[in-house]
Amino acid sequence: MGRRRQADISRSIHRALLREPEHERKTSLLSGLIAFFAIWKIRLVRISAELFRELRNNVWEINENDYRASFLDPIQPVGDLGFSGSTFFRTENSNLLIKSLPRYSEYSFFRDDFLHPYYDYMQENRDSLLVRITDFLGSQHPAIGTILKCTPSHHVIMENILHDRPRDPNSDRWETYDLKPVSYFYPERDLLPNQLTPKDATSKLFDIFKDKIRITKDQHRELRRTIESDLAFLQSMNAVDYSLFLVRYPADGTPPKSVGRGNSWRQGVLSADGQWRYRLVLLDFFWAKHKLQAQAMTGMIQTFNVIGRQGPMSITTTAEEYREKFMRMVDSIIELKD
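Given the sequence above, the corresponding structure tokens read:
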């Protein structure tokens, strides 16, 4: 059943990305009725297609023919990752990732609140480390599958900074870390005994980088300036629970490369000791404090803390506090070398 579900979702995404937005046809009453009874294979359309085309072509300098070519082959399922219930796919050439947004609070925040400020910010900050989102898909009609939450109704297409890993002979030596401040209260980690919590579940919470990013003072100055700007923007959008995705791979392996407009932290910054290259992006900025689900979670945790006294979760803290703790986390994993 799971394999059939993934295949149908994959085909729906694939068809939406191969259709040009201007060729979207109006649906008849009969076809709308048929679409309503879909469980997994729902009809998806591109949302704000021209806005994303502008970002791809004129801001990130992604060749449109190359971009379309990424979707000529069927997309490949990566799996259900994390506690959010998101489903992930990648293109055959590994240049792009597709992530589902199953929660209304997430896709409505991205669509209604975040999208246009994100567009403006990326135009003014072309070297931003916010992950590049290149397309946004949503269901054209209500469907039983989305109403019953069998199938995600919205998906984002984004860059994959691991795009060249499959072609590296030393791909098994690449390391990835999904980093968040660890001082928050995480029920899956802090309430359940270790013997009752499967390791593959707790491992999806976040990673811990036990080494240091060894860079020069000039590299650190550039990195800190960029991240501080990005975090200020995320705070202005009331976003929390985002993460820093760190990639580390041997310096003698794949040469620096990026898809579209390059910058040092997407291509691979050489460590000060010459041993590693690092890549960084900021991910998962879809959880906003002012959305109804976040407010409900905050109230529930505050009630629990009258007894439990565990402190805030990363999804119930304030945007300002999360930004401050996030920046301290970034500083804690950096070691400066002359």
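The domain at 2-160 is CATH 3.30.800.10 (Phosphatidylinositol Phosphate Kinase II Beta). Try to locate this feature in the token string yourself.
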